[in-house]
Design a protein that fits this description.
This protein has 309 residues and is α+β, with helices and mostly antiparallel strands. Helices cover 32% and strands 7% of the residues. The protein folds into 2 domains: 1-40, no CATH class; 41-308, no CATH class. The chain has helices at residues 28-39, 57-84, 110-113, 167-174, 184-192, 229-249, 259-270, 296-299, and strands at 91-93, 119-125, 150-154, 175-178, 208-211. A 5-stranded antiparallel beta sheet has the order 4-3-2-1-5. The N and C termini lie far apart (54 Å).
C-alpha cells in the first residue's frame, strides 16, 4: 500500500484499519513484551529510561533555558556593538594579517602604521554566533559563540613584497574572520571559577574598528530574545553533537554521568553573570575594539568602500 494514503496498515498481521500496537491478532504476552521493550528505551541526553531524545522533557527545558541566556547576553551586548560602530560596511583593521608581519604600534602611529592590506570591509555578521561561550572544549564550535562572527574582506590586494597571491593563499590573506572580544561578565565568570579565558575558546581579539558602519545595526527579528530560528536550530544541533561526543567517553550510562548533568553544570555557573541581579549591570569590551582616532589619513581612500557591496 502506498505511503501517504491515510489508511493504517498493521505491521503484525498486514491488515488495514489498525496498527501493530492495537492488533487483535496479537496475544497478550506479545503485547506485554512490546510494552516492556519500550519501557527499556534509554534517552541519550539524560540517560533515563522510558523515553528518547525527541520526547525528553529535560532536553527541551535546557534548550529553552539556554536560549534565554543567549537572549540576555545579546540584550546587554547590543549597546556595545552600536558603540563600536559594527555592522555591514564598517572598516576594521587587523594588523599583521598580510605579508608585513605585526606592526609595533608603540613606534608607528596609527595613521602611518596601517596600510591597505590591513584594512578590511565588514561584509557579513553571523548573528547566530553572537552568544556567550558555555563549553570549555573543542566541541564548543558547534554551539553559538564558538565560531567567528565578523566576516570581512581586504580593501586592497596590493602586497608590499611584490609576490603574486593566487588560490587558497590569496583567499587566506584577503579574508578575515574575527570573534567578538571577551566581555566583562565573562571575565567575572572566569575569575569566579578559576578559568583561563584562552581555554574557553574565546581567543584574542585581533581587530579594531577604523570607521563605523554607514547604517544602523540591524540584526534579524527575534535576535535579541535568542528565539530566532537560526539560533534555535544551531543550539539544538550543537547540543546533539555534544551529546554524541559525551557518549563516546561515558562508560556508565547513569543519569549522574549524563550529557545533561555535564552541560547544565556549566550553564548554571555562567547564567548568574548575565541574568538576575546582574542583568542591568553595564557590560564592557576592551577599549581597543572601538573606533580609533588618528587613522583618518590612512583610511581616507577606502571611506566609500561600502558602496560597492
Amino acid at each position: 500500500m502506498p505511503r501517504g494514503s491515510g489508511i493504517r496498515h498493521c505491521g503484525y498481521c498486514y491488515k488495514t484499519g489498525h496498527n501493530k500496537r492495537t492488533c487483535p491478532s496479537r496475544s497478550d504476552e506479545s503485547k506485554a513484551r512490546g510494552a516492556n521493550s519500550a519501557s527499556k528505551r534509554r534517552c541519550g541526553w539524560c540517560y533515563n529510561t522510558g523515553h528518547n531524545l525527541r520526547t525528553c522533557a529535560t532536553f527541551k527545558q535546557l534548550w529553552t533555558d539556554y536560549l534565554k541566556l543567549i537572549g540576555a547576553y545579546r540584550r546587554r551586548v547590543r549597546p556595545l556593538l552600536v558603540k563600536a560602530g559594527l555592522g555591514r560596511g564598517a572598516l576594521i583593521a587587523a594588523p599583521g594579517k598580510s605579508d608585513r608581519g605585526y606592526v609595533d604600534y608603540d613606534e608607528h602611529p596609527y595613521g602611518s602604521g596601517i596600510k591597505g592590506q590591513d584594512v578590511f570591509l565588514v561584509r557579513k555578521i553571523e548573528w547566530a554566533q553572537i552568544a556567550p561561550i558555555v563549553l570549555l572544549r573543542a566541541t564548543s564550535g558547534d554551539l553559538p559563540g564558538g565560531m567567528p562572527s565578523i566576516h570581512s574582506r581586504a580593501i586592497s590586494t596590493h602586497y608590499t613584497d611584490g609576490i603574486e597571491r593566487t588560490g587558497w593563499k590569496a583567499k587566506f590573506e584577503t579574508e578575515h574572520r574575527g570573534r567578538l572580544p571577551v566581555d566583562s561578565a565573562f571575565m567575572e565568570y572566569c575569575t569566579a571559577n578559576d578559568i583561563r579565558p584562552r581555554r574557553s575558546g574565546a581567543g584574542k581579539c585581533d581587530w579594531f574598528v577604523l570607521a563605523p558602519a554607514p547604517g544602523e545595526l540591524s540584526p534579524p527579528a527575534l535576535w535579541a530574545s535568542g528565539m530566532d530560528n537560526e539560533t534555535a536550530v544551531l543550539v539544538r544541533d550543537g547540543l546533539k553533537t555534544f551529546m554524541n561526543e559525551h557518549s563516546k567517553y561515558a562508560y556508565t550510562k547513569t543519569p549522574e554521568n549524563s550529557p545533561h548533568e555535564s552541560f547544565v553544570e556549566r550553564l548554571n555557573k555562567l547564567t548568574p553573570h548575565y541574568v538576575g541581579r546582574n542583568k542591568n549591570k553595564p557590560m564592557s569590551f576592551p577599549q581597543d575594539v572601538f573606533v580609533r582616532y588618528g587613522c583618518e589619513d590612512a583610511i581616507a581612500p577606502y571611506a566609500g568602500a561600502w558602496k560597492s557591496m
